[in-house]
Every structure is written in structure tokens, then in C-alpha cells.
Amino acid sequence: MIDPKQVHATLSRHQLVDGYPVVLDLEKSHGSWLHDSVSGEEYLDFFTCFASWPVGYNHPATCDRDFLARLQRAALNKPANSDLYTQDMAAFVDAFGSRVTPPEFPHHFWVSGGALAVENTLKVAFDWKAHKVGVDKVNDGNDLVVLHFRQAFHGRSGYTMSLTNTVPDKVALFPKFEWPRVHNPTIEFDLDGGIANDVEAEEARACGEIEAAFERYAGRVAAIIIEPMQGEGGDNHFRPEFLQKLRDYADRHEALLIFDEVQTGFFGSGKAWMWQHHGVAPDLAAFGKKTQVCGLYAGKRVDEVPDNVFVRSSRINSTWGGNLVDMVRCHKFIDIILSENLAENVTARGEELVAGLREIARERGQFSNVRGKGSLVAFTLDTPAVRDGVLSKLMEKRLMALAAGERSIRFRMPLVVTAEEVGTALERIADCVPQAV
Ligand SMILES: Cc1ncc(COP(=O)(O)O)c(C=O)c1O
């Protein structure tokens, strides 16, 4: 084994190493605590691998012998799941399809990586729209476009780079499509949880731009895509009323409504899917991160085209069709999350974190717009420099968090987080944020 102190140096000889200074100890890390093999210190992990590690490290239920045997079996032989089926795959798909996906979505597709999950929702929509318009009328699909939002992050693959527009560096110099991009009417919260900005005016601006786009690209908008809460763009929340408007536009203009739940999905918000808080259902949802294996589910509107991609072979596909180890692990996570009521747990813990942050902000902290649902919590500092300073101090205090947007810090708690750990996090945050004089 490589000496922990040599991990960064060894990697640096062969690749870019711009990640955390710690070395994750896969054996000693436990629950919400990441053990650093270099210093022996424990970090309270409110980063969770970019919101991807749902039930904490080494959850006791993952020591179950039957599970370990299934995991090992899946790890030793890697099937091409798209064409070669196993009992383990069938058990996982059944568990996901019947216990996580809401019943009105009969179609699934599995792939590795969140960007490719999103990419395939777009392909579903392009194929669907081309059939709706008439396949001979869309210039082999080249005329079709996707309506999306400012500050969106949908990944860094071919199609998704034409949508992602958070930090310019992420997409600059790569060829992209010019698809309609519209205003994102985000809510700003006051310290009582009320709406502090004129969000209706923001929504009116967005709707004006959406209507102009539907006019300009008449008959060519295949989909509207949005994150139900923009994560990397700044933990930007939307009103259900606005998402309902998107639903109406999609229905009226024969476009599919896609929710990118890669960051928000799989119980992170306290419900299986964040859109369930808003009560507005999409036609397609992309998932990844916490689900381990990534993919999409689709509703019945797709079936308006009889020859759609879920019927016709090879329209969407990949060799591995996701990864069987990820499927077996995800299956276990579903069992753990549902049997231990972790969605309820993280709902309560999220409320405590939001309430505690608002109290600090009210009494002595200099930050604003505390917001969050379940494990997904954020607040905003005055400038990017102040934000970056707070993030480094949090790391010194052994609390791992993430930047979001230009001036925000986001927390991504594990679903197993305890009230005591939220209390510890709040103490550490209070020591790091700028104090009112
Ligand atoms: C909302 C959203 N969509 C898509 C992606 C891309 O996922 P991946 O990095 O697994 O390709 C991310 C990743 O952060 C995301 O947050």
C-alpha cells in the first residue's frame, strides 16, 4: 500500500491533483465522519462526495454478509447490463422502479455518470419531438433546441456543455450549440424563511424570455430542462408556481419537461425527488450521484410517439448500461434509507441546520439568504473573497463544505446525520463566519 503521506505526490506525477488535502481512509471513516489517513484527524463531512454519498461511511447494515457476497460477485465480473442480464440487476431495477420512482413513470434507462444521464434525457426528447414534428421536417434533428436556464449546471458532456453556464472555464473553448437560455427567477429568503425579493417580477421576466424563445424557435423546442433547485449555480430555489408555468409551457408547445435531479434526487431533499415538494411532475427526470448508478425515468407522455426510444432498439444505449456494483450498492441504500426512515431524519436535521444558521445570522453573523431542504442547505456571503475565506476556515475547523454560485456556501449532509452533528457543525460555522461589529 502507498504511504498516505505519498498519495498526493504519487498522483501528481500522473495527473492533475486539485482536490482536498486529506486522504480518505475507507476503513476508519464512519457515518458523517471522514477519517484522514495523513493526519489521523476526523472531518465532519457535509460535502459527501458532491452530494453523492447518501448513508455515511461504512453504514453498519453494509456489513451484512449476504450483501457483501452480492457485492463481491458483482465486482468480480462486470456484465454489459444493456444486453446481458443478471438476477442482481433485476432485483435492483425492481426495487428502484417500484420503491423510488413514482408509479406514473414506467420507463428507465441506466448509464454511468450524471452528465450522460442528462444527455440521454435530451436524446429521448429530440427523438420524441422529431417524430411529433415529422422526421423529414427537422433537418435530421439539427433544427431542434433545448430551452434552459442561466446558472444551470447539467454536466460537461457534448450536449450538456451547451446548457451548463455557471463558471465560464467549465465550457469555454469547447464547441457548443446555441440553444435558448433564459432568466432563472430564483427566490431570496429573509431570515424568517419568507421571500425577500420580488420573485413574481423575476418570474414575469423569465416567462417573457420563454415566450420569445418559443416564438423564435417555433415547433423546434424539444424540451425545457431545469434543476428543481440549481445546485452548483448557487442553490437557487424556485417557486412551485413557476415550475407549474414550465409544465404548462411544455404541454402547450409540445415539448418535454425535464427535471435534472442529479444533485437533488434520491432523498437528498427529504423526499425521493425534489419535484415532489413542488407537486409539479416532469416528463423525464435525470438522476445520478446518490443513486450510484445514474440514469433517467420517463412518464407516459413519451408513449404518445409509439416508436419511442424505449420501444425501438439502439436509439439510446451504452456498453455497460450502468455498473452492476453500483446497482447492488444502490439496492442496499434503498433498503437502508426506507427501513431507517432516513428521509424523515434528514428533513428534521435540515430544518435544524437552517434554523440554527438563521439564528447565527440574526444575532451576529454577516450572511444572508439561508435556505435549504433536507440535506441541501446553503447561505450567502457578501463577496466571493469572503466566501472563499469562510470555506477555508471551515476546513481548518474540520467541517467540509462546498462553494455554490459566486458567493454561497452549500452543505450536503449525509442522510444519517444526527442532531448532535448538526449542533457541532453550527458551532464550527459560528466560529468561521464574519461577525457583525
Ligand atoms: C444538476 C447536475 N446535473 C448533472 C451533473 C453532472 O454529473 P456528473 O458529474 O456525474 O457527470 C451534476 C454534477 O454536479 C449536477 O449537479
Radius of gyration: 22 Å
Strand order of the largest sheet: 3-11-10-9-6-4-5
Give the ligands present: pyridoxal-5'-phosphate
CATH architecture of the largest domain: 3-Layer(aba) Sandwich
**Main beta sheet strand tally, sense and closure:** 7 strands, mixed
What percent of residues adopt helix (DSSP H or I)?
25-40%
Number of folding domains? 2
| CATH homology group of the largest domain | Type I PLP-dependent aspartate aminotransferase-like (Major domain)
Shape: globular
- What is the CATH fold-level name of the largest domain? Aspartate Aminotransferase, domain 2
- Approximately how much beta-strand content do the residues carry? 5-15%
Classified by CATH, the class of the largest domain is Alpha Beta
Q: Given the helix and strand composition, which structural class is it? A: alpha/beta
- Low-pLDDT runs of 5+ residues are none
